Amino acid sequence: MDSYALLLAATLNAGTVLALAALGLLINEKAGIINLGAEGMMLCAAIAGFAAAVHSGSTWVGFAAGMAAGAALAAAFGVLVIWFNTNQYATGLALSLFGSGFSAFVGVAYVQEKLPPSPQYAIPVLADIPWFGPALFRHHPMVYLTVLFTGALIWFLMRTRSGLVLRSVGESPESSHALGYPVRRIRFLAVLAGGALCGLAGSYLSVVYTPLWVEGMVAGNGWIALALTTFATWRPARVLLGAYLFGGVGQLGFFLQSQGVQVPSQFLSMLQYIAPVVVLAIISRNPAWIRANMPNSIGKPFYPGS
């Protein structure tokens, strides 16, 4: 198989993990909530999904378990920051630390476990096209569902009444409350949806992308997903493109090694983390552009009685 086709295929796989998590965080931030706990939610979802897949033999059961784990942790986060008005940044960091430790503790028994053989997916006819088939049409269905979900999210946010209400809560919760909308409930549902998507990303990582369980296997992808929302200026289509960009950068090291390029492995492992920092540093040179696209109430508590 052509090495460039392999690189593109690996980019789509890696980008799917980032895209799912970043789209979930985007939903949170559209409602005015910033959740720094994505890394912890993804880790707990990864072990929950892997364990469920081991015992059930079903990838989709693993996805469901991962989404449930992510939503459960997000629910705890949502109660704390929405009803008890704890600091969103500190609570998110605590969630990330908790998820890291809890997943390591629970996952000890699953380090040596193996999943049943995964079926080979391929889109009939298209998968047989030279170069394009291996690169684009032999992926797990979740890769294509992520693209479809991105389109559905764009439609939801821009074309539906519910999406407009969600965005209005993120822009001005006080005005939304004055119009009679249940701001806290809307924010909580957004946090649940975001947690479920982060959970799906974590379970996809451990059940399909790797597939195995290793302590700390999310390896910073939650933080990269968080940076993606700012990189994309809170637009779903840009989130998807950015996920593929950063995912491709992460795979570039393996590609260079396969081509015989003599580059220190430590440098190659840093590429995926350097790229978001460089990109964010560049776009931060125009803070007015970021402020124009950022939800106005992001990270700010809401007090209905004030």
TrEMBL record:
The chain crosses the membrane at residues 6-26, 33-54, 60-84, 91-111, 141-158, 186-206, 212-232, 239-257, 263-283. One of its GO terms (cellular component) is plasma membrane. The keyword Acetylation does not apply. Keywords: Cell membrane, Membrane, Transmembrane, Transmembrane helix. InterPro entries: ABC_transp_permease. GO terms for molecular function: transmembrane transporter activity. It is found in: Cell membrane. The keyword rRNA-binding does not apply. Pfam families: BPD_transp_2. It comes from the Bacteria. It is a multi-pass membrane protein. PANTHER family: ABC TRANSPORTER PERMEASE PROTEIN, SUGAR ABC TRANSPORTER INTEGRAL MEMBRANE PROTEIN-RELATED. This is Nucleoside ABC transporter membrane protein. It comes from Pseudorhodoferax soli.
